[in-house]
Amino acid sequence: MAQAELDVFDLNILRILQKDASLTNKEIASQLNKSVATVHERVRRLKEQGYIKRVVAILDRKKINKSLIAFSQVLLHDHTAETLATFEREVSKFPEVMECFQMTGTFDFILRIATSDMDAYHDFYRNKLAKLPNITTVQSFFVLSETKSITAYPI
Amino acid sequence: MAQAELDVFDLNILRILQKDASLTNKEIASQLNKSVATVHERVRRLKEQGYIKRVVAILDRKKINKSLIAFSQVLLHDHTAETLATFEREVSKFPEVMECFQMTGTFDFILRIATSDMDAYHDFYRNKLAKLPNITTVQSFFVLSETKSITAYPI
DNA sequence: ATTGAAATGTAGGAAAC
DNA sequence: GTTTCCTACATTTCAAT
């Protein structure tokens, strides 16, 4: 499968779907002055080729009792392939961990942790995260307020 | 409008839609052993009451030329309401800024910045971020690798 | 690759329980 | 609040360009 470049029409479709994937092909077609069948075919290809990874519902975290978001910076003892792989595998299993990135700089990983409150975070920290092997330090920062939070990349 | 509590059925619907919002009501109904109309009504309510904020397409950032993700920690000169509000308002206007959170700890804000590469980040930093008023320091960390990245809260 | 039109399936609304 | 029924609309396929 040749990975064709995206044209302006593809990009416009992606822009729209990143913001609202509940729009119908008809509405998208009308915005972009194309036929419904063409939009359908383009969207099918964008999914098939992996540009669109998935379509998800974004919830209001405060309404579902995930009021506390923490960013936790983790430093490991060493950086052997084994140590890194073990940490990544184990930390990914925790449902509280929504994101885990290996980073440049003075620590190794940054985690985004979602819990209901500080008690739940504390429990996660003591009984899950801090029990993983080879951790030197964990430094946590908590979200006070959310100024902007979007999933759409600027394209 | 009374904000009713969510029952197990609501939570199951939210769990499913957080992972795949392209499923039809029919498929959800079959998974949960309920009728399509019931699922339809529950989903309608979950949207109306704001539990579901929006439905979006998640793209593969590397395929759309957003290979570089930075987390930037920002410290401001002061914390008057005016200074905070101005920073929040202005930084939110930049399309590269996908997230902005005010934080506890040794800095004021954490930003998630998406750009194509280090040159583009540098340009963003010098010509946009660093030009905002009242910034004391910006410390940036870059994603080396993505171990886990989901939008679904654990519920 | 794009289109209009046909066929299929789903969403959305109404009425009864 | 749930179910069944019904209509409108959306998706999907296809032949033609």
Describe the model.
2 copies of one chain form a homodimer. With 155 residues, chain A is an alpha+beta fold. Chain A folds into 2 domains: 7-48, Winged helix-like DNA-binding domain superfamily/Winged helix DNA-binding domain (Arc Repressor Mutant, subunit A); 68-142, Lrp/AsnC effector binding domain/regulation of amino acid metabolism (RAM) domain (Alpha-Beta Plaits), CATH 3.30.70. Chain A has 5 helices and 5 strands. Chain A has a 4-stranded antiparallel beta sheet with strand order 3-4-2-5. In chain A, strand 3 (97-103) and strand 4 form a beta hairpin. In chain A, helix 2 (25-32) crosses helix 3. The two termini of chain A are 24 Å apart. The mean pLDDT of chain A is 96. The interface between A and B is large, with 60 and 60 residues. The first copy, chain A, binds a DNA duplex (17 and 17 nucleotides) through residues 24-26, 34-38, 40-42, 44. Chains A, B: GO terms for molecular function: sequence-specific DNA binding. Chains A, B: Pfam families: AsnC_trans_reg (PF01037), HTH_24 (PF13412). Chains A, B: Residues 6-67 form the HTH asnC-type domain. Chains A, B: This is DNA-binding Lrp family transcriptional regulator. Chains A, B: It comes from Pseudobacter ginsenosidimutans.
